[in-house]
Amino acid sequence: MMLLAVRNLFQSKRSLLISVGGVALSLLLILSLDAVFTGVEKQVTAYIDFSGADIFVSQEGVRNLHMTTSSFPAQWIERIGDVQGVSEALPILYVANMVVTGDDRHLAYVIGLPPGASMGGPWNVTEGRSLPEPGEAVIDRSVAEGSGVEVGEDVQILGRRFAVVGFAEGTASLVNSVAFIAADDFAALRGGGQTVSFVLVRVTEEAAADEVAARIEAEVDGVTALSRAEFAAEERRVVRDMSTDVVTIMNFVGLLIGLAVMALSVYITVLARRAEFGVLKALGARSADLNRVVVTHAMLSVGMGFVLAAILTLALSAVIPSVSPNLTLRLSAGSLVKVAFGSAAIAAASALMPVRQIAGLDPAMVFRGR
Q1: Distance, CA of 354 to CA of 150 (rounded, Å)
Q2: Comparing C-alpha atoms, which of 276, 265, 279 is closest to residue 347?
Q3: What residue numbers bound the domain in which 301 lies?
Q4: What's the confidence (pLDDT) of residue 10?
Q5: How far apart are CA 370 and CA 368, in angstroms?
Q6: Which of 148, 248, 249, 254 is deepest in the core (most CB within 10 A)?
């Protein structure tokens, strides 16, 4: 019966192309969409991941960067630095604002860095300097290239002109980019320097980040302290919550397309071979045996479609970043498992209609040509 299912699948190349190709395209929709959002989640936490900090300390209740503000007295920096297990405490200023280049406006996390900052600055500077001095800025290369800005030219940040002294890579995503200016400029433009937005903490070698974070919250009132991993997870959760409805709808559409294509393909295949199944039934084949042929046919088609969709998604993951540097596709194991189960559901559902046809098949009617 397995050989019969394989023969039925490969007997018509056109039918094979339609069934496998249709399923592959529908699953490609799901896999590529998941890969896009996984890539976006990774990109939006790039600043956190490469900050060099083990702990992020913020205003109490603030647990991420996206769409939040954080502010607490600068005097607390010393108290944070005195907590056991803290090796270094570096204050930064932060706001979500625009980098204006000519007529273009780019949403950005604007980071105010103190002089000689050992954490929190750009991690991959491809041209120019990494730390801005007063009146200077470091911006993402893709933002600069998109607007034709060169090192030494001006951009507008927080309503003031800054000379670009460096280009960083890996600091932009589909959501925003990151721009760096001097903390003194930031404080002057945002009204005084008596507060900070975050304190980046580096722990001693023997200390655990989670334990030190808990100690900071216990000893310093009015702050929230999270390890870098936990802070990044909170940032990804916010982005994921914002996109859940879109992903769910598109995945559902992809599953419906795959189900429709697969069900139609298997149904037509069974009808086209109705006489063969009638002969097999007349020779003693049970309906259960013929049902296995149909189910095997569906499983093979969907399995091949799944493999093809995964290969195409990996190919897109390699090609798209070279075309659009701010868009990264990441095919995760979780996405593959989810789509694999979805594929099995498609195969099972697509076999239901042909199974009913076989169960009601009368061999005598087949031999009469009816």
Answers
A1: 64
A2: 265
A3: 2-44+240-367
A4: 58
A5: 6
A6: 254
Q: Is-contact 166 132, C-beta < 8 A?
A: yes
Neighbours of 195 (CB within 10 A): 18
Asked whether residue 318 is assigned to any structural domain, the reply reads: yes
Judge if 206 and 290 occupy the same domain: no
Q: Are 97 and 157 in contact (CB under 8 A)?
A: yes
Output DSSP code: residue 169. S
Q: Which residue has the higher pLDDT, 287 or 63?
A: 63
pLDDT in tens, 89-130: 999 999 999 999 878 888 999 999 999 999 999 999 999 999
349 domain-assigned = yes
Other beta carbons within 10 angstroms of residue 343's beta carbon come to 25
Distance in angstroms (rounded) separating the CA atoms of residues 315 and 214: 44
Confidence of residue 50 (pLDDT cuts 50, 70, 90): very high
User: Helix, strand or coil for residue 69?
Assistant: coil
Quick check: 202 and 53 in contact, CB under 8 A?
yes
Indicate if the pLDDT at residue 77 is higher than 70.
yes
Give the phi and the psi of residue 107 in degrees, each rounded to 5. Answer: -65, 135
Rounded CA-CA distance 125/138 in Å is 9
Highest mean pLDDT of the ranges 97-106, 149-158, 187-196, 336-345? 149-158
Q: Enumerate the β-bridge partners of residue 142.
A: none
User: Do 196 and 92 share a structural domain?
Assistant: yes
- For residue 49, is it within any domain? no
**Mean pLDDT of the residues in the chain:** 83
Q: What is the pLDDT of residue 259?
A: 66
Mark whether 134 and 16 lie in a shared domain. Answer: no
Q: How many domains does the chain have?
A: 2
Give the predicted TM-score (pTM) of the model: 0.74
Q: Check whether residue 322 and residue 210 sit in a common domain.
A: no
How much of the chain is in helix, strand and coil states, percent to nearest 5?
A: 55, 20, 25
197 shares its domain with 315 = no
CA angle 229–230–234, rounded 5-degree value: 120
Give domain status of residue 6, yes or no: yes
Residue 159: left if φ>0, alpha if ψ -120 to 50, beta else—which one? left
Of 264, 275, 253, whose CA–CA distance to 364 is shortest? 275
Residue ending a domain, among 167, 187, 221, is: 221
